[in-house]
Amino acid sequence: MPDMQKRPDHRRIPIAKVGVKDISYPIVVMDKNHSLQHTVARINMYVDLPHHFKGTHMSRFVEILNRHREHIGLDKLEPILDEVKARLGSASAHVEIQFPYFIEKKAPVSGAKSLMEYSCEFKASMTDILDFVLVVKVPLTSLCPCSKELSRAGAHNQRSVMTVRVRYREFIWIEDLVELIEQCGSSPLYSLLKREDEKYVTEQAYDNPRFVEDMVREAYSRLAAVENITWFSVEAENFESIHNHSAYAAVELDRRA
Ligand SMILES: Nc1nc2c(ncn2[C@@H]2O[C@H](COP(=O)(O)OP(=O)(O)OP(=O)(O)O)[C@@H](O)[C@H]2O)c(=O)[nH]1
C-alpha cells in the first residue's frame, strides 16, 4: 500500500508538534491515602516533524499507548516518550495527560465525608532529558476585601480557580499541592456541607477576605518555601459575582539555573 506520510514535502517548513489529541484512556495515579487511583484521562501525544517529511505516523502513538495499557502512570512517561521518539524517529516527543483526580474531604464541623474532584495534568516532554510539569486546578471561595470594607452588610464572594504548575526534584503528592493552594483563598470548597458546615465556611470566608493578588502572593510564598520545587507558576481566576468578567493574576518563580 502507498505510504503518503513518508513522501517528501518541498515547502521547507518543519513542524514543532504534530500528533494525536484527546484520546480517552484509563490511567493509574499514585494516591496518597489509597496507594493507587484509577481514572480516565484525555491524552495528547506529539512529536516534531522535520521539514522534508510529508506526515507523521499517527497510528504509532496509539500503538505505544496500547503497549502500556496495563499501567499508564507517572512512572511510564519516560519509557513512553523514549518509545515515541524511537518509533517516530523524532528529535522530541510530548505527552499531555489530563485527568480528574478525586480526594476525600471532611466537612469542617460535621466531619461529613465527600469526594472532591480536582482537574490535573501530567505534561512531559523529552528531547535529550525528560521535562515534567504537574498541573493541578484547585477551586476555592474568595471574598472581596474591598467589598467587605465598603459595604454596610455582606461582601461579594465567588468561586475561584487557582491553577498551579510545578517542576520538582523529588515526587510531590497532588494531595499536598491541593492542601497548600487551599490555604490561599478565603475558604476551601467541599462537595458536602451540612448546615453547621455552611455557617462555618461562610464565616471563614468573611474573616479571610482575599483579592486575586493576595491569592497568588500567598501561593508564591508557600510554594517558594518548598525547596524541592525548582519552578512554579500560579494563576488565579475569580469568576466575579458582581461583574460579568473575571479578575485574574499570575506569578512565576524559576530556580533552575
Ligand atoms: N499524518 C497524518 N495522518 C493522518 C491524518 N489524518 C488521518 N491520518 C491517518 O493516520 C493513519 C495512520 O497513519 P500511519 O501511522 O502512517 O499508518 P501505517 O502506515 O498503517 O502505520 P506504519 O506502517 O506504522 O507507518 C493513516 O491512515 C492516515 O490517513 C493527518 O492529518 N496526518
TrEMBL record:
Pfam families the UniProt entry points to? GCHY-1 (PF02649)
Q: Which InterPro entries match?
A: GTP_cyclohydrolase_FolE2 (IPR022838), GTP_cyclohydrolase_FolE2/MptA (IPR003801)
Q: Would you indicate the residue range of the signal peptide?
A: none
Q: In which pathway does it act?
A: Cofactor biosynthesis; 7,8-dihydroneopterin triphosphate biosynthesis; 7,8-dihydroneopterin triphosphate from GTP: step 1/1
Catalytic reaction(s) noted: GTP + H2O = 7,8-dihydroneopterin 3'-triphosphate + formate + H(+)
Query: Its function?
Result: Converts GTP to 7,8-dihydroneopterin triphosphate.
Q: What is this protein identified as? A: GTP cyclohydrolase FolE2
